[in-house]
């Protein structure tokens, strides 16, 4: 009995949240030092140059009643007015490009009110940390901006998007960039992975400590597990719906296939001058069905 309890305790002690779960990611971004380290890595500057990072409301304003709401994971404003949207996306999302453009555009346009000058507009950055491949190549990170399609010259840096594809991380190398270290941290699957990266960067070390503290917090762990369950339930529902769709699609496909064959038969018999009644009899179908097909053929 004592051995079983000890085994359970050891297993519980090894539990650690994964940063790819949005609840955990949002909690990590509550830590100023963690935000500072990650943003510095994204901007490719020394963390000392990131003077302040203020969390902003994550619900984008609706200008008109019919507008679509935008709810961001984490929205940060820097001291110089630059705004950054940080999104963690685990499940594959077919319209990620559309969504990221929508988010960064909303952030950009809602900075000024009617009558205000455009010079008030500050840079907006959308960051997508993805657990699925978005592009077909092997690049795990890219910065996307508005540029001349022929020369490649950047038109403006006021709007840009960063895409981090964790599933494409290459084997670890020496002297990696700070951003690559953060990507490896986010892509970690166990405490050993997080600990390893924490030893290489003090800001990631802060994230690791925050991760451990969250994992030991009973209430936060319950919230984390509830979020994981919601994701599992959603995936199960979607897979079930997909299976039903395939099954129904096969049935409908058979029906459509049969209808097309019947239509071709009717067309051939019509070309031979056969009457409606004879065609219906030879095809063993109701006259009304054959009449509908004849009408369709003649309308084409």
Q: What does it look like?
A:
This protein is an alpha/beta fold and 300 residues long. It folds into 2 domains: 234 residues, no CATH class; 55 residues. The chain is built from 10 helices and 8 strands. The strands form 2 sheets. The protein has a 6-stranded mixed sheet with strand order 1-4-5-6-8-7, with helices on both faces. It has a two-stranded antiparallel ribbon with strand order 2-3. Helix 4 links the parallel strand 5 and strand 6. Helix 3 crosses helix 7 and helix 9 crosses helix 10. The chain starts with a helix and ends with a helix. 24% of the residues are buried. The N terminus is likely disordered.
SSE ordering = HHHEEEEEHEEEHHHHHH
Total helical segments: 10
Oligomer: single chain
Distance between the termini: 79 Å
Mean pLDDT: 88
E-strand count = 8
Number of domains: 2
Architecture blueprint of SSEs:
Blueprint: H1 2-13, H2 22-28, H3 32-43, E1 53-55, E2 59-60, E3 70-71, E4 74-78, E5 83-89, H4 96-109, E6 124-130, E7 141-147, E8 154-165, H5 178-186, H6 191-198, H7 202-216, H8 218-271, H9 276-283, H10 287-299
Helix pairs in contact: 3-7, 5-6, 6-7, 8-10, 9-10
From the structure above, extract its key features:
single chain, 300 residues, alpha/beta, 2 domains, 6-stranded mixed beta sheet, two-stranded antiparallel sheet, 10 helices, elongated, disordered N terminus
């Amino acid at each position: 009995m004592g051995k079983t309890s000890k085994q359970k305790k050891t297993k519980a002690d090894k539990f650690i949240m994964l940063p790819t779960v949005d609840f955990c990611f949002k909690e990590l971004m509550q830590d100023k030092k963690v935000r500072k380290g990650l943003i510095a890595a994204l901007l490719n500057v020394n963390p000392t140059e990131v003077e302040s990072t203020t969390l902003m409301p994550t619900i984008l304003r609706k200008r008109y009643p019919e507008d679509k709401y935008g709810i961001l994971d984490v929205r940060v404003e820097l001291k110089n007015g630059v705004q950054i949207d940080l999104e963690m996306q685990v499940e594959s999302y077919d319209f990620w490009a559309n969504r990221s453009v929508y988010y960064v555009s909303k952030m950009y346009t809602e900075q000024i009110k009617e009558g205000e000058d455009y010079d008030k507009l500050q840079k907006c950055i959308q960051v997508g940390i993805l657990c699925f491949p978005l592009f077909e190549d092997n690049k795990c990170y890219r910065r996307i901006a508005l540029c001349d399609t022929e020369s490649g010259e950047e038109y403006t840096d006021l709007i840009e998007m960063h895409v981090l594809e964790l599933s494409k991380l290459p084997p670890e190398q020496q002297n990696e960039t700070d951003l690559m270290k953060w990507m490896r941290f986010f892509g970690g699957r166990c405490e050993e992975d997080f600990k390893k990266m924490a030893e290489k960067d003090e800001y990631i070390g802060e994230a690791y400590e925050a991760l451990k503290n969250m994992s030991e917090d009973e209430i936060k762990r319950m919230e984390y597990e509830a979020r994981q369950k919601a994701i599992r339930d959603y995936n199960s529902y979607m897979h079930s719906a997909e299976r039903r769709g395939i099954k129904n699609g096969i049935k409908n496909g058979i029906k459509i296939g049969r209808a097309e064959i019947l239509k071709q038969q009717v067309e051939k018999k019509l070309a031979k001058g056969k009457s409606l009644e004879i065609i219906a009899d030879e095809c063993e179908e109701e006259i009304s069905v054959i009449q509908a097909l004849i009408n369709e053929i003649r309308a084409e």
